[in-house]
Amino acid sequence: MNDTDASILCDQVADVLLGAKESWTRRMFELASQLRADGGGPVYDLSLGNPSLEPPSIWRETVRDLLAAPEPGQHRYMTNAGLPEVRAFIADRESARYDLEFSRDDVTMTVGAAGGLNVVFRATLNPGDEVLVPVPYFPEYEHYVGHVAAKLVPVETRADFTLDVDAISAALTPHSRLLLLNSPNNPTGAIYGDASLAALAQVLSNRASTATRPLIVVEDAPYRDLTYDGSAVPSMLRHYRDTVFLTSHSKDLGLAGERIGYALVSPRCRGRELLARALSFCNRVLGFVNAPALMQRALPAVLSSERGRVDVSTYAKNTTRMAEGLRALGFAFPPPRAGFFLFPRLPSSLAALDDQGGDIALTERLRKHRTIVVPGTAFGVPSHLRLSLCVPPEAVDGALAAFRLACAGQ
């Protein structure tokens, strides 16, 4: 694309495309598709968090039953917040999980967690507002925040990628409006602990006594049910009143392409009713209108079943095998606890690559061996790579072979 071509676009989109700020993740995913099409051999695509496991059989059975005996109006519009009975089911389920009294009006069904984030940002952010986010972070956040002319403010984390509450406190300004937390984290698999969340809540509550607008915590948690040891992931819902929780079933049900999730407003949130109305309104005016009707109708039966999950042990085994192979090559990283990503730091033996952009240079070496990863630069932390391991086991073995060749300079 040249500047003449760009004249057909809005300035913001043209700046993104011409400035090479397009999603690294999507760019590498599309590159993998091109490699597969050239017939040159297998491609080991560790770029996108695109679950390789099929949805659980209960999901297929439920959808089949819905389609076999449809109720009148099954596929029509509904209230922008979603089907009342589904929202009531979600409210009851989350009430039991977090010991809070959610009502169906606290639930807005969304087009995945990404759609939910855009709805929340549109409903709460003014131009110039700041959104704090611990690094590393999902790179699309920057674009979502930019849509409303707000500013993403990265905040450093500790060496093991857990929260640095003091750093968050120091980053707060009069313009701080949202704190965006992603736990379990993409790309590191880190889980933000209950003690750090409690300390963070105290910092934010102290600030609230002098602020003219409440700072809202937005939790993006699509990996919360993919912990390797089955433990519960702590949430700010238990600690901080002004919390909005988002999740999707892209990962735990393997439904990434079906785009079903929801936003949950804490029943203790100031302006709770008005915020819920705003989320419903923004669901409509952003063009989502409502979350997919069939997916909504399927959720209660699927989530109520013991079969309503993918087998996370498959991802854990992939991650463990890749971690062992990378450590033998000198890569370093804290053990991930959830999800299906690794975020290794480049070994000192590859220090010579730093002059070439380190993680980007190694990404290019791996591409020559038909292995696709995403450079850590995309997540705000250079000298790292993100590897998505929701792949068939043979892809792990092939990628490890490519890493050995790339680290040897081939």
Question: Could you characterize what this model shows?
Answer:
- Helix content is 40%, strand content 12%.
- It has 14 helices and 12 strands.
- The protein folds into 2 domains: 7-55 and 311-407, Aspartate Aminotransferase, domain 1 (Alpha-Beta Complex); 57-303, Type I PLP-dependent aspartate aminotransferase-like (Major domain) (Aspartate Aminotransferase, domain 2, 3-Layer(aba) Sandwich).
- The chain is globular, with a radius of gyration of 22 Å.
- Strands 2-8-7-6-5-3-4 form a 7-stranded mixed beta sheet, sandwiched between helices. A 3-stranded antiparallel beta sheet has the order 9-12-11. Strands 1-10 form a two-stranded parallel sheet.
- The chain has helices spanning 3-6, 11-18, 24-37, 57-68, 84-98, 112-124, 140-146, 165-171, 194-208, 272-285, 293-303, 312-328, 359-368, 393-407, and strands at 44-45, 107-110, 130-134, 151-155, 176-181, 216-220, 243-248, 261-265, 341-342, 371-372, 374-375, 385-388.
- The chain is of the alpha/beta class.
